[in-house]
Amino acid sequence: xxxxxxxxQALVARLLLSDxxxxxxTPARALLRRWWNAAASLGMVDPVGNRPSAxxxxxxxxxxxxxxxxxxxxxxxxxxxxDAYEMLVVVAVHDMxxxxxxxxPNDATSDWAGLAARWWGTAGRLVRxxxxxxxxxxxxxAELPPAAATLDAxxxxxxxxxxxxxxxxxxxxxxxxxxxxxxxxxxxxSRDWWTGHRRQLAVAAEADAEALSLWSWQGxxxxxxxxxxxxxxxxxIRQHCDELRITTAPLWDLADRVGRAxxxxxxxxxxxxxxxxxxxxxxxxxxxxxxxxxxxTVRQEVAMAVLRLRRLDLDVAGAEETLHLLxxxxxxxxxxxxxxxxxxxxxxxxxxxxxxxADGRADAVARRSAATADRLTRTRxxxxxxxxxxxxxxxLMMLAAIQSxxxxxxxxxxxxxxFIAFLTSLAxxxxxxxxxxxxxxxxxxxxxxxDLFLFAxxxxxxxxxxxxxxxxxxxxxxxxxxxxxVCALVAVGARAWAFRxxx
Length: 503
Description:
Layout: E1 10-18, H1 27-41, E2 46-47, E3 65-76, E4 86-94, E5 96-103, H2 112-123, E6 133-141, H3 153-160, E7 183-187, E8 197-203, H4 209-218, H5 226-274, H6 281-324, H7 329-333, H8 335-404, H9 416-433, H10 437-443, H11 448-473, H12 480-498
Parallel strand pairs: 6-8
Antiparallel strand pairs: 1-5, 1-6, 2-3, 3-4, 4-5, 7-8
């Protein structure tokens, strides 16, 4: 038989008793005998290999078992060639007696409800605590782990033996399949069970995902048994409620973060509007844009959180609708899940409303601050345009007056080229020199290297004019290239010092 098993709905019932279960006349012994007789009535009377197959009894003082020790194992065997699929195993571990029963029909007609009814209808439900009863549980498996998937008697026996860890080490996580892990959801049980009983749904990562998904979403309409639908829906609801409990605190914190970001933007916006204490407009604009960017980041987190809440609400609503289609005992058992659905949907609505209010406040603050940023940007642009227009207009007016009046600047020929070069370089940097230092840095349209080049050109033009003037009028012997280089370096150094710390 292939090691890969098809989708099976198997039941594993477990009973944990004190070691008094091996002593005749004790309540724990009565529970052990009850389960043993129930297994025998279902046909589990055949031995498993050469393992003990008689009801175990203490032969002396009970001993603490550090490792699980098999006391007895019986199974039901079918016709010739059929695999064993029903088995009872009794194991001693530490100071406990663990009884495990497996019902795994490996067919397409059985369901969890039928398997549970078959076992509990025979063994009887545990309705009250008893002396020596430590715990009980039932696991409803969608697929057996690979080790037991072939229903080999030895493999199933080993798998049913509980791997109870020592009191001090931490129990490792249960893994099954190719890198998969068993997902366990603890489900509700009806009120006629004792409080120590647990019901769990275990779905392996290697299970038939398509069939499980179909049953999980369409329920009885997909042909799934009602009890199976209840368990699948309960598992989904439990998972979503756990997810909601984990995310509730971070979502409230996210709403608080939106509020803090709104207050920070409001403070920066008030400062930008007032302008007192911050002389440079570009500093106010930069601070405002930074605050708005932080607010937008938080708003994107809010949008993603609202989307997750909506998806979660739709999923829970689908599970609720599927549960409402159940009838009979399953409908009564679904009442705790329906209460969880109402709680989850109420939590969803509350969180969504809180996040929507926070986002609405953030939107109003962002609109107001964006208007302030637009006004500051227009003001800076208008100032730059005005200064450039004034400077260039005055130069053009001067040149027009000189030309219309036929005025000749009394400069000797050797000085005129350097004068023209100086005026040209001065016209390139005058609009920036007319601005305050911080605004000039923020408004410059070129990179740092080209900016330094402009000031070097201005210094070189001034040096050329100075050197040619000194040579003509003072008969200076200083070489012109030397003066040009010195003045260019001075201009670059002055620019670097004046705008130090700025990029």
